[in-house]
């Protein structure tokens, strides 16, 4: 019996000390999954950040800001196409996360890290804090991943 308890405690210790398999964060009723930034070309003035946000609660919440010491500022943008021209508009109203639903900051909406402090490369981690009206502040880590063909919107001319 003592051997089983010791083995169980050792396993818990190993799991606690090893890197998490999943890349997610939870606070109150908000579940954040896979915060990531695509690696940008050298000297890019902005980085695009993406993740999914699930509201597991009974009350709507709203992502109202994203903060990071890794960039001069972070803005939330929505991409729209008008008359065949794609434009990015700041999401001044934030992002509504309805109760019991999942929303994504993906190609259509994203976090824009303006004037990053350094060139972040694949494997780097970028700290940030997501600020919600009800759930409050949630510290997360955006992992820098390889840019995929066709993913993300062009950010040329932004952040200058």
TrEMBL record:
Keywords: Signal
One Pfam family in the UniProt entry: PCuAC
Alphabetical list of Gene3D superfamilies matching this protein: PCu(A)C copper chaperone
Signal sequence coordinates: 1-22
PANTHER family: BLR7088 PROTEIN, COPPER CHAPERONE PCU(A)C
Protein name as catalogued: Copper chaperone
Lineage of origin: Bacteria, Pseudomonadati, Pseudomonadota, Alphaproteobacteria, Hyphomicrobiales
């Amino acid at each position: 019996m003592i051997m089983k308890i010791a083995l169980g405690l050792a396993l818990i210790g190993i799991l606690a000390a090893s890197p998490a398999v999943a890349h997610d964060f939870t606070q109150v009723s908000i579940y954040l999954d896979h915060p990531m930034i695509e690696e940008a070309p050298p000297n890019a003035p902005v980085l695009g950040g993406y993740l999914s946000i699930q509201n597991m609660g009974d009350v709507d919440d709203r992502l109202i800001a994203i903060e990071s010491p890794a960039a001069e500022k972070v803005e939330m943008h929505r991409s729209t196409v008008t008359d065949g021209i794609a434009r990015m508009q700041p999401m001044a109203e934030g992002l509504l996360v309805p109760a019991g639903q999942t929303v994504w900051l993906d190609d259509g909406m994203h976090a824009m890290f303006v004037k990053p402090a350094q060139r972040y490369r694949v494997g780097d981690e970028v700290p940030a804090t997501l600020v919600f009206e009800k759930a409050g502040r949630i510290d997360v880590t955006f992992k820098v991943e390889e840019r995929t063909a066709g993913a993300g919107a062009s950010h040329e001319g932004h952040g200058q």
